[in-house]
Backbone:
């Protein structure tokens, strides 16, 4: 969307999209991210949708936390603070140690959060996931389960299977790739996004050289400033799943819902104060038919994305996840939004965003 272009009311867009579906002349060959989001909204009844171009600047409080919604492509970001003194009191209750049996892959939304029973077992450099449900999660992309492929829309069964694998590859390139985690530009992930989707390309071009609340790379990518923190080991724990359905114009619309757990220490040599940053992202991708949509073959168009982050930074947007350690947490204010269990995958991201709509920061019940 070019600078200075006037905002078009949602009602007008909805009327325009209905006419386009009916064959009215002048329909766009390549729907913008905004058009895709409004069209998707017409099919959904899961609460009031996030506003397009409705960025809501944070009202600064005494604490270093904020909540922002309405960023590009219906994106939403929920930054969750860790309440001092409570983190050590909430630990994984299903096996409490690194020897616990791994969980089976997540094939559907769980009915309840992970157990909170168990002894307090803080993380260490040797056991960075100890004391959390993530100790039983899979490593890296292995924790992102894929559904069985079937012919859908314009794609055959084998083509759907390839689209699912490529969708997971994008998640790995954006949230698990070691170079990206060290703050490098996620070139491989960016190449997977439709270059004809101009509003998304504008966001990607801005987010890395001039990050802001309107163009925050953390919505889609996990990046740490290695001058301040470093990852503990080379394992990121994940849990999540990928689903799909037929979308607009016969496209295959893929929804990914994944939680990532990153253990880190300060960058100084010998640091052993381990904390965890937890990011849950929901990314919706549209694998479009090139015969109907102006798209580079092998790429997808972004429909929407939401991000819910615990201990990822509660200050000005720098473009990096900036976790706090014990000393910083002790000096931080408690979040004034709802309490959030970052390991709870029984709640949809849409519900999580609605619950925090009027808050700037929630309070994590554990890390």
Residues:
């Amino acid at each position: 969307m070019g600078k200075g272009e006037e905002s078009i009311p949602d009602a007008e867009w909805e009327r325009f999209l209905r006419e386009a579906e009916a064959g009215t002349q002048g329909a766009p060959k390549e729907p913008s991210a905004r058009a895709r989001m409004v069209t998707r909204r017409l099919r959904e009844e899961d609460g009031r949708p996030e506003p397009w171009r409705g960025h809501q600047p944070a009202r600064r409080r005494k604490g270093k936390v904020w909540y922002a919604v309405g960023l590009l492509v219906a994106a939403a970001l929920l930054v969750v603070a860790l309440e001092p003194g409570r983190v050590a009191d909430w630990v994984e209750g299903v096996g409490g140690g690194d020897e616990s049996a791994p969980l089976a892959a997540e094939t559907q939304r769980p009915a309840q959060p992970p157990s909170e029973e168990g002894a307090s077992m803080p993380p260490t450099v040797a056991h960075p996931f100890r004391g959390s449900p993530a100790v039983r999660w899979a490593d890296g992309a292995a924790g992102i389960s894929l559904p069985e492929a079937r012919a859908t829309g314009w794609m055959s069964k084998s083509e759907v299977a390839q689209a699912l694998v490529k969708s997971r590859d994008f998640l790995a390139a954006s949230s698990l790739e070691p170079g990206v985690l060290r703050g490098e530009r996620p070139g491989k992930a960016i190449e997977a996004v439709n270059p004809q989707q101009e509003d998304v390309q504008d966001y990607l071009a801005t987010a890395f050289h001039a990050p802001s609340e309107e163009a925050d790379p953390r919505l889609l990518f996990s990046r740490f400033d290695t001058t301040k923190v470093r990852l503990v080991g080379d394992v990121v724990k994940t849990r999540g799943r990928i689903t799909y359905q037929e979308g607009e114009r016969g496209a295959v619309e893929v929804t990914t819902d994944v939680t990532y757990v990153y253990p880190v220490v300060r960058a100084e040599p010998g640091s052993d104060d381990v904390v965890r940053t937890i990011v849950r992202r929901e990314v919706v991708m549209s694998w479009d038919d090139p015969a109907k949509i102006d798209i580079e073959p092998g790429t997808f168009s972004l429909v929407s994305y939401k991000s819910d982050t615990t201990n990822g930074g509660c200050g000005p947007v720098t473009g990096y996840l900036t976790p706090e350690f014990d000393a910083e947490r002790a000096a931080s204010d408690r979040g004034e939004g709802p309490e959030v269990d970052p390991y709870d995958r029984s709640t949809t991201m849409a519900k999580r965003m609605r619950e925090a709509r009027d808050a700037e920061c929630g309070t994590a019940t554990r890390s």
In short: The mean pLDDT is 79.
